[in-house]
Specification:
Layout: H1 2-15, H2 22-27, H3 31-34, H4 37-55, H5 66-84, H6 91-99, H7 105-133, H8 153-176, H9 183-201, H10 211-222, H11 231-256, H12 281-288
Helix pairs in contact: 4-5, 4-7, 5-9, 6-7, 6-11, 7-10, 8-9, 8-11, 10-11
Length: 294
C-alpha cells in the first residue's frame, strides 16, 4: 500500500512538469515494430533544431539588427532542414503530403506525433538555456481577441492564407522548379525568405503557419501541463492550416494530375504534359518495313 501511494505521488508530481501528450507522441515511434522510427527521429530532432535556429533570430541573434535577424533566420531554416534530413516539422504539411500520396497514413501520424513531441520539449528546454545564460526569452505565436464579440474569423483567415501561401511555395519550389545541380541550395534559401516574408505580412496571429508551433507555445506560455481549453485555439491554429493544406493540395492535384487521397480526379491536369520524343530514324525505318532487318 505504501509503495502504491508513493508511486501515485511520484506520477502526480511528474505530471505537473511533463508536457501533455508527450508520452503518446513518443510512443508513436514504435508503431509497426518501429518501421517509422527513423522518420520519427527526423521529425523530433528536426523540430528542436527548427525552433532553436528560427526562433532565436531577433531574440538571441540580431536583436538590434533587422538584416542580421533575417539572415540568421534564413540560415536557421536551411540548417535545420539539412541537418535533420528534410523533415516536415509541421502537422499540416504532413497532411498535405498524405493527401497527395507522398506518404501513407501511418507515416503521416508518426510525423505529426514526433513534431508535436519535439515542440512540447523545445520551449521548456530553451527557457532553461535562456535563464541560465541570461538571454532574452523566446516568444511564440498567439492571438489576443479584440473584445468579447470577436468571433476569431479574422484570426482564422490570417492563418489560412499564411499557410496556403506557404504550402503553395513548397509545392512550386520542390515539385515544379528545378535549379539543377544546386537545386537544394537555391530552393531552401528561397523558402527561408518566403517564410520570413509571410511572418511579416500575416502578423495578426503570429503567424504560426504550423499547428505544432501554435499549440506547443500555448502549452508552454500557460504555465500548465495541459492543452489549451478554448475551442477557438484549435479553430485558428489547427483547422485553418489543415483546411488550407487540403485546398492547396486539391488545387495542385488538379494542376499536376496527381491523385488526391488516392483517387484520380475527374478533371485535369492543367499542367502541360510533355509529348514523347520522336523515335530514332532507324526505328521509323523498321516500322515501315514491318520490323524486318535488311
Amino acid at each position: 500500500m505504501i509503495l502504491i501511494s508513493s508511486l501515485s505521488s511520484l506520477i502526480n508530481g511528474l505530471s505537473k512538469y511533463t508536457p501533455p501528450g508527450l508520452v503518446l507522441g513518443a510512443s508513436a515511434a514504435f508503431l509497426e515494430d518501429g518501421k517509422y522510427f527513423d522518420p520519427w527521429l527526423a521529425e523530433f530532432f528536426g523540430t528542436l533544431l527548427m525552433i532553436f535556429l528560427t526562433f532565436s533570430p531577433g531574440k538571441w541573434i540580431g536583436a538590434d539588427s533587422m538584416p542580421l535577424a533575417w539572415a540568421s533566420h534564413a540560415v536557421g531554416v536551411v540548417a535545420s532542414d539539412y541537418i535533420a534530413g528534410g523533415p516536415h516539422v509541421n502537422p499540416a504539411v504532413s497532411l498535405a503530403m498524405f493527401s497527395l500520396g507522398k506518404c501513407n497514413y501511418t507515416e503521416m501520424y508518426v510525423r505529426m506525433c514526433a513534431s508535436m513531441a519535439g515542440g512540447l520539449v523545445a520551449f521548456p528546454l530553451f527557457l532553461f538555456f535562456s535563464e541560465s545564460m541570461g538571454w532574452q526569452q523566446l516568444g511564440g505565436p498567439e492571438y489576443s481577441p479584440n473584445d468579447e464579440k470577436d468571433d476569431f474569423s479574422q484570426a482564422f483567415l490570417n492563418e489560412f492564407f499564411a499557410f496556403f501561401c506557404l504550402i503553395v511555395m513548397i509545392y512550386v519550389l520542390n515539385f515544379e522548379l528545378n535549379f539543377g545541380k544546386y537545386h537544394y541550395w537555391i530552393k531552401q534559401p528561397m523558402t527561408a525568405i518566403g517564410i520570413r516574408y509571410l511572418i511579416e505580412v500575416f502578423g495578426l496571429t503570429g503567424p504560426a503557419m504550423n499547428p505544432m508551433l501554435g499549440t506547443a507555445w500555448a502549452v508552454f506560455a500557460s504555465g500548465k501541463a495541459t492543452f489549451p481549453e478554448g475551442s477557438e485555439h484549435y479553430f485558428v491554429y489547427w483547422l485553418a492550416p489543415f483546411a488550407a493544406a487540403l485546398v492547396a493540395s486539391f488545387g495542385y492535384a488538379v494542376y499536376s494530375g496527381s491523385t488526391f487521397f488516392g483517387s484520380k480526379l475527374p478533371f485535369g491536369p492543367v499542367k502541360a504534359v510533355a509529348k514523347p520524343s520522336a523515335p530514332p530514324m532507324e526505328e521509323k525505318e523498321k516500322k515501315k518495313k514491318g520490323g524486318k532487318k535488311d
